[in-house]
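Sample log: Glucan endo-1,3-beta-D-glucosidase.
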Amino acid sequence: MPAILMVGLLLIISLDSTVGEVGVCNGRLGKKLPPPSKVISLYKQNNIKRMRLYDPHPPTLDALCGSGIELMLGVPDADLPILADCLDNARSWVQGNITSYPDVSFRHIAVGNEIEADSEFAPFVLPAMQNLYDAVCEAGHGNRIRVSTSVKTDLIENSYPPKNGEFKCDAVPYIKPILEFLKETRSPLLVSVYPYFAYIGDRVNINLSYALLEPNSGVNADGVYYDNLFYAIYDAMDAAVEKLVGPSEGEVERLGDESSGMGRMVASETGWSSKNRSENGSRPLSAGDESPAATVENAKKYNNNLMRIVKKGTPRRPGRPIETYIFAMFDENEKPGNEEERHFGIFDADGKPKYPLCFT
């Protein structure tokens, strides 16, 4: 075997235990959630090695010190204008939320969360990313912390077959400069990948077992076999990204930065709702809320299957594990939106798992 292929193979094998690990999003929009110290203990007890935190919450950052848990730290949307305004503001943010916590293992900074192309915050995303990137590099963290932003997959159209995925015309002016920046800085795009919502939106054409990533369910998508909907959504976004910023060039770029195992995209949110009624059952379901797919058993199936498939790579990117974050650690009873949005947690507030889920 040629030496360069051997190196590539060894790199793929080594990445399997790093990129393919599944982290958990630590949403905090709920009452009676455990304090940060107990949350971190729960992560460690269950061998969860990565966390996504949606804002720089000092008690959680303090609790993370020395834990070894790798962190994706979010920048709230409302903070983007001031960070986009000037580099000094970004320097202050990095000093206060990164440098001040030398014992926290920062992995990503997520600048804004699922901001739409027509949002009032959209013009501030890229300049905020650029300023934070410069500030991170100045602080000496450029080789270990990646600066990115998270997006929803509804920015794309023509998602089936996945190879035809492309961004909506009105989204291109927004997303293309961001993708060019990410390519230049060798940072991954953060993508929310939700087969649950795809299934809820099209039950006629999507089989439930396919959405639940169950074995032996699949479709032939224009000559390419997909055995689960997560792969199909991920690959459609991957195809859309490639259409805007070009194909990967060479083995090293395909795999990402050798020192960090970064790929082109991170599944920064995914999960399955386990319930869609209010806790006391007093609130009747409306037609828009009715969702018999939202059960504990289905959430168990989805998340356990997810742990398996993200280690293997998709049909477009075979052999390349996908860095993935399950949403969420706990149910969030103050989260806005439909009732099902409040029941994505994998643990109850008392620390008991809703269902068996093995992080390895």
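Observation: The two ends are 31 Å apart (CA to CA).
Observation: DSSP finds twelve helices and twelve strands in the chain.
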